[in-house]
Amino acid sequence: MRDTHAFWTWFDLEAGPKLGAREVSFRKAFAYLDTLQRTGPVTIVETGCTRIAGNWAGDGQSSVLFDHYLSHCPAGSEAHAVDIDPNATAQCRQLVSNRVHVHTGDSVPVLRQIARTLADAGRTIDLLYLDSFDVDWKNTTPSSAHHLKELVSIVGSLRSDTLVMVDDCPAQARMVGTEPGNYSLISQPEIGGKGGFVAEYAAQVGATLLFSHYQAAWTHFV
Predict the structure, then answer these.
(1) Which of 44, 67, 169, 219 has the fewest CB atoms within 10 Å distance of its CB?
(2) CA nearest 135: which of 62, 69, 214?
């Protein structure tokens, strides 16, 4: 049985106030998971993982958040976290319970392996969180392309109501200065950063954008 009241008490008092720009979107993501009318265990898959203990505002401590949430979900609920840095995965394993399976390797092929494991167990994903390839804000293309590859590599494990969330993708717009302190938009805001190509793909396949803050999330990729 899922009873996340204790999780929300912890999130409101302990985690949320430390999350900075990510607080509102993580709150919406967990609230969305609470609304899923599904029985049985919850499955979360993330790319990237918690690297530094206590670095809440810096990287969001996603693995720790997911571990806490799953502790209040039905037996068998689990998360898979993938990171290419063995130092990061070693640190993450020290910070989470055995509900979180931490994998070391390139996320794209590892996600395909996870997809096969989930299929063999008859499981699908409730939340897919993409946050691996660090973004260079002066050239977001490599990171954005990698996150689209991640999505495509595991799309077969998604349901229509699976929440797909991407970190580090605030909306961006072009503008010109009209006078000191005043600006005029010359393009409408669009999701950028790590999620730029995922957002383009979402629009093309008719996915539903649920929210766009510092993180963005969609349903209906399938």
Answers:
(1) 219
(2) 214
- Give the tens place of pLDDT for each residue, 36-66: 977 889 999 999 999 999 999 999 999 999 9
Provide the 3-class DSSP secondary structure of residue 135: coil
Calculate the alpha carbon distances from 145 to 98, 128, 150, 168, 175 in Å: 31, 17, 9, 14, 25
**How far apart are alpha carbons 54 and 67 in whole angstroms?**
15
CA atoms of 11 and 4, how far apart (whole Å): 10
Residue 19 half-sphere exposure toward CB, CA atoms < 13 A: 22
- pTM, rounded to two decimals: 0.95
Q: Give the closest residue to 114 by CA, choosing from 60, 159, 153.
A: 153
The SS3 call for residue 95 is: helix
DSSP states along 162-212: EEEEESS--EE--EEEEETTEEEESS--EE-GGGHHHHHHHHHHTPEEEEE
100 within 8 A of 79, measured Cβ to Cβ: yes
| SS3 (DSSP) at 66 | helix
* Of 166-175, 176-185, 213-222, minimum mean pLDDT range: 176-185
Domains and CATH numbers, the chain: 5-219 (3.40.50.150)
What gap in Å lies between CA 181 and CA 169, rounded to an integer? 25
pLDDT digits (tens, 9 = 90+) for 103-120: 999 999 999 999 999 999
